[in-house]
Amino acid sequence: MGIREVKNNLKNLDKKQLIDLIGELYKKNKSVKEYFDFYVNPNENELLSKYRDKVFETFFPKRGFGYNLKEGKKAISDFKKLGVSNDSLADLMLFYVETGVEFTNDFGDINESFYSSLEKTYEQALNLMYENGVLEKFASRAQKVMSDTSDIGWGFHDYIAQVYIDFYADYLENN
Fold first, then answer.
1. Per the record, a Pfam family (predicted)?
2. CB–CB of 98/147 below 8 Å?
3. Which has fewest Cβ within 10 Å: 74, 81, 99, 134?
4. DSSP letter string, 65-81
């Protein structure tokens, strides 16, 4: 069934039926609940804090040891789906990379796919910042990521440094 069919079926419902349907969705579907909670009370800072905790937990779980990049990327994707600002999204993406770098510096080199995920997210975050004119706002954090990777292998530092320079060359010249 496509969206057109869903819309046609929803048009046949009266207001009470629609409210009941949305109420059922709210009770039964966690992502719908979160979406409507944010819709009704759009506290983006609180939501960002909640998702930062989720990302942190993917690298430093409360129980056990290990990381789960898939869950970290899912947290970013879910956060984006809520319709948050690009600043907050860039913040969370950069936090994902910062936390991955912290994990590596705490526990030693990981593997190539781990670093590829961090590299891709770092580049996407800086690109999002560039497109929205907020590179300067995140300059110190982006630079810290680069400097914190200096002892990490797999060519990770070289890649992160190059991405940083690609995006911040003009900023570095003027400051």
1. DUF6155
2. no
3. 81
4. S---HHHHHHHHHHHHH
Distance CA 6, CA 11 (A): 9
Q: Are 112 and 154 in contact (CB under 8 A)?
A: yes
Residue 33 CB: number of other CB atoms within 10 A?
13
pTM for the whole structure: 0.86
Domain ranges of the chain: 1-41, 42-174
Asked if residue 141 lies in contact with residue 94, where contact means CB atoms within 8 angstroms, the answer is yes
At residue 39, the pLDDT reads 85
Residue 138 burial (C-beta neighbours within 10 Å; 0-12, 13-18, 19+)? buried
Where is 119: in which H helix or E strand?
A: helix 112-131
What pLDDT does 138 receive? 98
Which ranges of the chain have pLDDT less than 50?
none
Structure tokens at 61: 């779980």
Quote the Cα angle for 107-113-117, to 5°: 90
Q: Which of 31, 41, 45, 164 is nearest to 101 (CA)?
A: 164
List the structure tokens of 172: 């570095």
Euclidean distance between CA atoms 130 and 170, whole angstroms: 12
